[in-house]
């Protein structure tokens, strides 16, 4: 074995959504903030994302995170999120995966059944509360950066469908949110391929027809993900829904999607359907749940916004070392659109 690089990775999942976490073998890139480091990786040094997420080491359903020393004095660790085709400023499931790896591997030792710490994401500081549940599972609750609505009932011309209304909002990424039931879906596993086909069409249309830009971070722009959401219901005083988010290059997020849930919460609040402090349970197509609430209202660059809080469980499924042999013809992998 003649590896030129050795990368140590924890394979983690958050309520069913896989998220690799790099815990060794990578040095931090240049940058004064974690956002600067993410932009440097995106624009000048994309090898790690391709190495881990392209075949033969990765696949189209994979995402990965790399832990770096924090740049902000209030954070205990920083992390950059890497997905199949982009570097999102924030991801809920990847935040849960990263926090799970930090706790379960003892990088940030858990000294009691509940521990608080702060992570630095490209989107900003993310407050974390880690809880050891009665069955031994680890629940990670994070308080996100502000979520806000760009447009409600925006008319979107979708190939093969016609004009449909979508809500456009930001929860860490920009989402086009459509009514799943109105499009004939129940958001169940048997619909997976059709959900991906519809969601991919909506994403393409929104990326071309909708202008979306963050009011204080203009580098965050453009709709790159769609959400098909079932109507809001209420049971035993708890508001609930089920959704799927379609992630590029065309797959279902297995969990309820953290930033997608935050984007939906901003929409529900703007419509008067979710008040500050109310519990909202968002369920995935595979039957897993994020428990959420809006902490407070705020204003972001003149735009009304909310501060969302999301809780979900994470588990380490395995520890892997990846390497590159100089004779390997695929040092950064490859991808097929099959």
CATH architecture classification of the largest domain: Roll
Unreliable runs, pLDDT <50, ≥5 residues? none
Q: Tell me the number of helical segments per DSSP (H or I, 4 or more residues long).
A: 5
Question: Could you name the CATH topology of the largest domain?
Answer: Diaminopimelate Epimerase, Chain A, domain 1
Number of strands: 17
- Major sheet description: 17 strands, mixed
CATH homologous superfamily name of the largest domain? Diaminopimelate Epimerase, Chain A, domain 1
Can you characterise this structure?
- The protein starts with a strand and ends in a 14-residue tail after the last strand.
- It folds into two domains: 146 residues, Diaminopimelate Epimerase, Chain A, domain 1, CATH 3.10.310; 165 residues, Diaminopimelate Epimerase, Chain A, domain 1 (Roll), CATH 3.10.310.
- It is α+β, with helices and mostly antiparallel strands and 338 residues long.
- The mean pLDDT is 96.
- 18% of the residues lie in helices and 41% in strands.
- It is built from five helices and 17 strands.
- The chain has a 17-stranded mixed β-sheet that branches.
- The protein is globular.
In short:
The protein has 338 residues and is α+β, with helices and mostly antiparallel strands. It has helices spanning 34-44, 47-53, 92-104, 192-209, 258-270; strands at residues 5-14, 17-24, 64-68, 77-82, 114-121, 124-132, 138-143, 147-158, 162-170, 174-179, 223-229, 233-235, 238-247, 251-252, 279-283, 289-300, 303-324. Helix content is 18%, strand content 41%.
């Amino acid at each position: 074995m003649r590896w030129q690089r050795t990368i140590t990775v924890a394979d983690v999942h958050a309520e069913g959504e896989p998220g690799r976490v790099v815990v060794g073998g990578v040095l931090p890139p240049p940058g004064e903030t974690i956002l600067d480091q993410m932009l440097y990786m995106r624009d000048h040094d994309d090898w790690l994302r391709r190495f881990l997420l392209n075949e033969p080491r990765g696949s189209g359903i994979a995402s990965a995170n790399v832990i770096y020393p924090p740049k902000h004095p209030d954070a205990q660790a920083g992390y950059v999120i890497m997905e199949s085709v982009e570097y999102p400023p924030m991801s809920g499931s990847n935040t849960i995966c990263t926090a799970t790896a930090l706790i379960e591997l003892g990088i940030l030792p858990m000294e009691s059944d509940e521990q608080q710490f702060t992570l630095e994401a490209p989107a900003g500081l993310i407050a974390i509360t880690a809880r050891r549940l009665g069955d031994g599972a680890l629940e990670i609750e994070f308080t996100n950066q502000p979520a806000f609505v760009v447009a409600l009932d925006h008319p979107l011309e979708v190939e093969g469908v016609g004009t449909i209304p979508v809500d456009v909002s930001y929860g860490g990424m920009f989402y086009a949110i459509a009514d799943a039931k109105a499009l004939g879906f129940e958001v169940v596993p048997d619909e997976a391929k059709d959900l991906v086909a519809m969601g991919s069409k909506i994403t393409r249309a929104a990326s071309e027809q909708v202008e979306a830009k963050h009011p204080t971070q203009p580098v965050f722009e453009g709709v790159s993900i769609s959400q098909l959401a079932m109507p809001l219901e209420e049971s035993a005083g708890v508001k609930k829904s089920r959704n799927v988010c379609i992630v590029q290059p065309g797959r279902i997020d297995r969990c309820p999607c953290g930033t997608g849930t935050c984007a939906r919460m901003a929409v529900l609040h703007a419509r008067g359907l979710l008040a500050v402090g109310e519990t909202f349970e968002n369920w995935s197509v595979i039957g897993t749940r994020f428990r959420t609430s809006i902490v407070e209202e705020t204003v972001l660059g003149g735009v009304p916004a909310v501060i969302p809080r999301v809780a979900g469980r994470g588990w380490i499924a395995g520890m892997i070392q990846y390497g590159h042999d100089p004779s390997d013809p695929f040092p950064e992998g490859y991808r097929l659109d099959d």
